[in-house]
UniProtKB/TrEMBL annotation, chain A:
It comes from Saliterribacillus persicus. Residues 1-27 form the signal peptide. The keyword Repressor does not apply. Keywords: Coiled coil, Signal. This is Uncharacterized protein YlxW (UPF0749 family). InterPro entries: DUF881 (IPR010273). Residues 51-104 form a coiled coil.
From TrEMBL, chain B:
The chain crosses the membrane at residues 28-45, 57-77, 83-106. This is Small basic protein. It is a multi-pass membrane protein. Its main location: membrane. Belongs to the sbp family.
Amino acid sequence: MKKVRGLQRKNKLLIGLVCLCTGFMLAIQFQSNQTPQERDTRDLWEIRTQLQQEQRQQQQLYQEISQVKNVLDEYEAQSEPAQMKALNQSIQELEIKAGMTEKSGPGVIIKIDQLFMDIEGPQSSPVLTPDLLHHLINELNQFGASDLAIEGQRMIDITPIRLVNDRIYVNNHPLPGLPVEIYVLANNAERLIDYIEVSNSNDYFAIENLKISTEESSQIELPAYDGILNLQGINVNAQYEVGDE
Amino acid sequence: MWLPAMFLIFGVLLGLMTNITVPDAYANYLSIAVLAALDTLFGGIRAQAERKFDQKIFVTGFFFNISLAAFLAFLGVQLGIDLYLAAIFAFGVRLFHNIAMIRRIYIEKWEKRKIKQEK
């Protein structure tokens, strides 16, 4: 009888231990699945810069609102012919902004050409790639170019540069072979030339056996964008970088 | 009956108080181990109700099932097959089966007692 009771006690203890293990594992599993609360870990500086940024944005929005309000007031205050005039003026302004009109001014003519003419070995002509062109255009915009045209094709905000059948198409028009000329309008042409001369683009182009040469010009004429502005499918691209949120 | 329950609560408290968490990569293993443990536990309760409880089978079943499940999950990860789903399925089915059997046994017992009382 005593032996049986001892066995039973041992039994119970073992079952208890198994239960203990199970409970322990359950608790750990429960805890692991509990998603930790998202904490605001930004320090004072990050919050301050964020605040500043938001304030700047707010300022900008206010400015835009007041501008648009002014235009609206003008429309409302004027008689019908004057209203038409104001509207036309707005349309013209917007067209200039969008690159739908011809534009002239001081600027730089950039010529992309072959770097070495007489390379030994099998003759091959250097190839301009859309990536290189993209890079150069981004740099030009960064360096203060206000308007651009590549071989008679005006660059607007939605101008595509694509590689189709081994040819580069700008605004859906193929670029002729080398040399390629880029017309750049800039308020400070000299500075732009300086920037181009020290930019990375030179090296990248040289790798492809291409050379960038610049020439200042007091009067450059850019053609108007002659295609159809298709704004369908264009959305505001709100990008968040790491650390923004 | 109260001892296992107490140990279970004690284990849960211990787990909650130690504040241990398992990294995401091993969450699968633990979940499957928990399932195996629960399966064994309910299996034990059922065996007890059927009066054929064997301590050896219970204890070895507990550890063996857990290690087998973890091994299966590990193998699945190595092979790129979600093998742990197989274990979850098997244990889930058995869990339901065991609980259903326990319910039946206790209902039968209750009915027998009722009939006895009426007599």
